[in-house]
Amino acid sequence: MFRRKSNLFLIWIVFLLGLLGGLCGHTVIRQKADLLILQRRSEMVKSLELTDLALFTDARYTRHPSMADLNTAFQDYPMAFDYFPSGAILSVPPHLKKRQGE
Q1: Do both 42 and 15 map to the same domain?
Q2: More confident site: 23 or 81
Q3: How far is CA 21 from the centre of its chain?
Q4: Which domain holds residue 85?
Q5: CA dist., res. 55 & res. 90, Å (int)
Q6: Does residue 54 contact residue 64 with C-beta atoms inside 8 Å?
Q7: Which of 17, 27, 60, 95 is deepest in the core (most CB within 10 A)?
Q8: Residue 79 φ/ψ, nearest 5 degrees
């Protein structure tokens, strides 16, 4: 059927471009459909007066990284290991990495 590999390649490229176009069209359709849900959630956050998103629930310094300081992970003693798994996943916020003199 295909004597040249370039014809098969061309058909593959056309198929992938059609798939990409379908995905782009799907995102536009879903955006319009999800707008109402997003507005409802926004109203709920305002009515319940919710604060920042809590990323992890195990340690208080990983719940809101912007509110943490450098020594809360080592509050038991300075050489203590961080025994919460989220402490290994979450990095130190950039504003805490700067030295005090800078």
Answers
A1: yes
A2: 23
A3: 25
A4: 60-97
A5: 9
A6: yes
A7: 60
A8: -100, 15
* Predicted TM-score (pTM) of this structure: 0.41
pLDDT digits (tens, 9 = 90+) for 63-75: 666 666 656 655 6
CA-to-CA separations, 69 to 10, 21, 35, in angstroms, rounded: 57, 47, 37
Q: Are residues 45 and 14 in the same domain?
A: yes
Based on the number of CB atoms within 10 Å of its own CB, is 63 exposed (0-12), middle (13-18) or buried (19 or more)? middle
* HEC secondary structure over 21-56: HHHHHHHHHHHHHHHHHHHHHHHHHHHHCCCCCCCC
Q: How far apart are CA 71 and CA 18, in angstroms?
A: 54
The structure tokens 């009515």 sit at: 47
pLDDT at residue 4, rounded to an integer: 85
Q: How many separate domains does the chain show?
A: 2
pLDDT at 25 over 90: yes
